[in-house]
Amino acid sequence: MANIDSLEEIEKIDKDGYLKCLQEFPDQCDRAWSDWKQIPLPARFIQAKNILITGMGGSNMGGALVSSLSQDVNIPVVIWRDYGIPGWVNKDTLVIAISYSGNTEETLDSFEKAAKETDKLITIASGGQLDVLSRKYKTTHYKINYYGQPRSSFGFLFTSLVAIFSGLKLIEVTEEDFRESVVLLRGLLKKIDANISTANNNAKLLAKKLVDRIPVVYGSGPLMLMARRWCNEFGENAKAASFYQEIPEMNHNTFNGIEFPKILGQKIYVIILQSQFDHPRNRLRQSISAQILDRARIPNELLMIVPAPTPLAEIMQFTIMGAYVSYYLGILYNSDPSIIRVVDYLKEKLAEKPIDES
Questions:
Q1: Residue 70 carries which DSSP code?
Q2: Percent of the chain with pLDDT over 90
Q3: Sorting pLDDT into bands at 50, 70 and 90, what band is 196?
Q4: Is the pLDDT of residue 108 over 80?
Q5: Same domain (yes/no): 168, 200
Q6: What is the DSSP letter of 64?
Q7: N or C: which end of the chain has fewer CB within 10 A?
Q8: Is 272 helix (H, G, I), strand (E, B) or coil?
Q9: What is the chain's alpha carbon radius of gyration, rounded to the nearest angstrom?
Q10: b/e map of 209-246 (b: 16 or more CB within 10 Å)?
Q11: Both 227 and 310 in a single domain?
Q12: What is the pTM (predicted TM-score) of this model?
């Protein structure tokens, strides 16, 4: 097992320097926030009666997390992770297509179909075909000038959606709110970065508890989709199997499945993400669930970010915490976090048969 307190050992495993991308997360957020101040949102966008955000993986997750901040708005926001589009998309739909590479085939397929139904279009990409289509359909477009994988540019992707939703008055984020969130983000990063020893580093401590176990992440309310984000990170950064569950739904069915197999307590580790802004009944459910897990001798812990004065600050800090925990777990497994061989292989095989031939 690798030594996560040795920067030299980390560098040998992390050959492409993915750690630097994590360290740049606050800077990415700052840059994207400033960039979007220069991008006007057409008045017709505010008239939209529903919103479709289409994208896959890391490109999609920014929209998913920001949509959790807009639960009180009076129009539906749907996250689309597939080919095609829902049947209800029409001229009153605002479509936001996100593909960091610009070549994600599911996103391109859904975007082109949506562009035939509405002129309320926003595109976000670093280049590729979506960049080309943005000019063809005259979309409101944000080109990300950054090199890396979608998850390595998450600050740009996430903050873009924050800026868009704020500009459309779907969420209330003041300049002060955003700046405070970034300051707290930088403060957390200083506590969990690679130069901080395991004894004083909560991200490293949690990663060590997960070695040879399957992380199971519970989330509810504002952090329901954050649980999914953490599992995405475990897969890409650590190449580790993981699962997530949504409270309160899981309390009505899958939570009953903690009795078998009998060795379950030796195989999984449950992480319960707690939000200060969640429904009080969900908070109670989390505490009771932890008690039940304790009785079943299944290791678990409740995780809360403090201080987090706003939901935005909380989400941004949970995002970087999950990224670092999964990164350290990958290093412990001697696995380069930048490499995604399985996904690359899948894309190569799909490319052998173009989408119009399927």
A1: G
A2: 86
A3: very high
A4: yes
A5: no
A6: H
A7: C
A8: strand
A9: 20
A10: ebeebebbbbbbbbbbbbbbbbbbbbbbbbbbebbbbb
A11: yes
A12: 0.95
18-40 average pLDDT score? 96
CATH code of the domain covering residue 127: 3.40.50.10490
| Residue 227 contacts residue 303 (beta carbons within 8 Å) | no
Tokens at residue 154, please?
């998450």
- Reference 194, options 1, 6, 2; nearest CA is 6
Bridge-based pairing of strands 268-274 and 243-247 is unpaired
299 alpha-carbon distance from chain centroid: 25
Model confidence at 333, pLDDT cuts 50, 70, 90, reads very high
The pLDDT of residue 62 is: 86
Average pLDDT over every residue of 328-334: 98
Residue in 269, 177, 276, 285 with CA at minimum distance from that of residue 223:
276
Do 201 and 324 belong to one domain?
A: yes
Do 77 and 137 sit in the same domain of this protein? yes
For residue 35, the enclosing domain spans 17-172
Q: Which DSSP state fits 221?
A: G
- What's the pLDDT score for residue 63? 85
Token code pair at residue 140:
């409101």
Do residues 93 and 214 share a domain? Answer: no
**121 with 25: CB under 8 angstroms?**
no
